[in-house]
């Protein structure tokens, strides 16, 4: 080994050490890491995984609701639902952009999704059988998303936190529109009320599972909390969610499908029954009712959209060339 390369190795180690110290200090002060800051490889990988999974969930999550756009019961409902589904596309795009600042290209992330290598929230592998499901998704699924995402606005990785601020504002509109759909149905005909109840029965358990496995089975959570990415444990968030929706269900006049659900005076929280974690694992592994359909649909949409991506790239290239020509002319003219 030459002396130069020994020197460069030593200075590289010094840089690493200084970087780690600076990183630890930023985390200890609860400040934020920006893309150009040094960060441990594990932190970068965890964020790419989490943010890209989050982006994929937003994109795949458009499907169950888009399924009802053409059959929304009124023009007003159709407009609201279209706006909501479009918001989810926007969330996916901010999140892909946030993940790209960590050095992974959007093409690679999208390809991993299409190849079935990347995960997304397993709730979207359930079908939307009736119009009331659109209400249940808004109320329970977007509601759980808010519970998860509000603390992420303070995530230590700044681009992720910034994306979450805007996403959360839109999610609260989503939750209210879902609640309002269920409220109307619950106060409608007996058939409509039964439809609302059936939707809540099917989405309640999977919505509670959106917070992830119980803390004891969630080995990565501790590290994410130490890095100030995650602020509360899965079980803590799940408890908060249950405490929030019980009075909301009462106001709706609907029942949450859990016989063990009751107020615990001592804890100051609602107790609730064990969730079906075998089902959860099976859906994650690809065996949910709609896993195959969701990916198939996404692949087709990706292929059908190829000409749009090509046209956008050609247009961007033409614009860049024109700008360059104009700049050259300006230089010559000057
Ligand atoms: Fe969203
Ligand atoms: Fe949403």
Automatic annotation (TrEMBL):
Name of the top EC class for this enzyme: oxidoreductase
Entry EC number(s): 1.14.13.149
Protein keywords: Oxidoreductase
InterPro entries (UniProt xref): Aromatic_CoA_ox/epox (IPR052703), Ferritin-like (IPR012347), Ferritin-like_SF (IPR009078), PaaA (IPR011881), PaaA_PaaC (IPR007814)
Top-level taxon of the source organism: Bacteria
Family matches, as SUPFAM superfamilies: Ferritin-like
Family matches, as Pfam families: PaaA_PaaC (PF05138)
GO molecular function terms attached to this record: phenylacetyl-CoA 1,2-epoxidase activity
Database matches in PANTHER family: 1,2-PHENYLACETYL-COA EPOXIDASE, SUBUNIT A, PHENYLACETIC ACID DEGRADATION PROTEIN PAA
Protein name in UniProt: Ring-1,2-phenylacetyl-CoA epoxidase subunit PaaA
